[in-house]
Write a structure and sequence with these properties.
Layout: E1 20-22, H1 31-37, E2 41-42, E3 46-53, E4 55-60, E5 63-68, E6 71-75, E7 80-83, E8 91-97, H2 99-102, E9 120-122, H3 125-142, H4 149-169, H5 176-192, H6 199-206, H7 210-221, H8 225-244, H9 249-255, H10 261-272, H11 276-283
Antiparallel strand pairs: 1-8, 2-7, 3-6, 3-8, 4-5, 4-7, 6-9
Length: about 280
Amino acid sequence: MESRDSLPSGFSQNDSLPIRLVAPGFGHLSPEAAASYSLPHHLTYYFFLFVWEGSTEFEVDLEKIEVKTHEVVFSLPHQIRQLSASLHGNTYYKLGLPEACLALLPRHYAFLLNPLHRQKIRFDAAAAARLRTIFELLLGLLRTPETHPELILAQLNSLLTEMNAAYFAVDKQPADDRLAKFLEFQLFVEDNLTEHPTIERIAEDLAVSTDGLYQLVKQYAGLSPKEFLTNRLMLEAKRRLYYQQRSSVKELAYELGFNDPAYFSRLFKKVTGKTVATFFRDLS
């Protein structure tokens, strides 16, 4: 079984780094393998799609996103992803990186936590041209499997720095300290999701007041902290139903930290508009 934070076995195009890049005429899988990976599946790595020219449709966590010229869409480990087959008629670059590869880079890239809940990034013409140049440099480096990893990592740092800058450029209220605190909130939620932490506990851990936490999460997520936690739990429920094909409400509820399966069922229907049984049946 693959690690949940790794590329599938045999995918890497470098002898020392786990990385895979696909572009027109480069890096494509066999038709049989491509068919299986075009289906919805749980990601075990970070995935980026840059459309230089054209458009395509991308689906992440069961939501469709249209990707147009000079746009990047990204998805994260544990998300459910599906690509459109029409992509291959466009000029594009697809990149897969596991956490093990990102850990070798000299900095963290806050956009990979998706604090603004935008999985699509728009680039102006100049930035898009720089992005394409970096992808082409990476493509050249990956044509030779024994390329020194430092050369590849240098280009990856430039690539992710461009994406990080463009992601946050749309936020017209730059407040780095507040954004950093919101990222802390997101990390806390991810690390303690199934423990159902109280808002008071989260605020105490982040060294803010409960009112300050409310204002912070409302600014960046448009939700209250409680709504954010609930939505994240229900998203996790949908992912597990989709990926694990689990139909037992009781088992799923206990996995997600709910002591009362009936309450979990009511909450799931309130947030998704469907019962667990209906959602599971619609996936079949």
